[in-house]
UniProtKB/TrEMBL annotation:
GO molecular function, one term: protein serine/threonine kinase activity
Organism: Thermopolyspora flexuosa
Coiled coil: none
Any Pfam family matching the protein: HATPase_c_2
CDD domains per UniProt: HATPase_RsbW-like
Boundaries of every Histidine kinase/HSP90-like ATPase domain copy: 16-126
Protein name: Anti-sigma regulatory factor (Ser/Thr protein kinase)
């Protein structure tokens, strides 16, 4: 069994400014979670990261930055792009909706999630994920 590092750990990456970004983000995240001993939650986190980075690659503008921070009981992640378009929630009751389900999915997987525009005009989407007790 891999042990989690003590204290906080932080990673940040600038991703390719195209549709390769989600695959690169998944690979980097998978390796980082393994290094941090978080294989048990990897599927959830990989899905969240993939959704957020895909949104940034499709709807945003470069640069796209992924950040992960491991705290004592929580994983924090964020994706920043410069597209200036804020995500919107969709009505999940509408079975015909083809887009927008990713954010609803993220909200059910994570402890909390949100987004904002930064003063520099970037879109910052973040999430927290409570880790299981060791």
């Amino acid at each position: 069994m891999t042990r989690r590092p003590s204290g906080d750990s932080f990673r940040t990456w600038d991703l390719p400014p195209d549709l390769r970004a989600p695959a690169v983000a998944r690979d980097l995240t998978r390796k980082t979670l393994a290094d941090w001993g978080l294989d048990a939650v990897a599927d959830d986190i990989l899905l969240v990261v993939s959704e957020l980075v895909t949104n940034a690659a499709v709807h945003g503008a470069p640069p796209i930055r992924l950040q992960l921070r491991l705290g004592p009981d929580c994983l924090y992640g964020s994706v920043v792009d410069h597209g200036g378009i804020l995500p919107r929630r969709v009505n999940m009751q509408d079975d015909m909706t083809e887009h927008g389900r990713g954010l609803a999915l993220i909200s059910t997987i994570t402890t909390s999630a949100g987004w904002k525009h930064t003063p520099a005009g970037a879109t910052h989407v973040w999430f927290t994920y409570r880790l299981p007790r060791r």
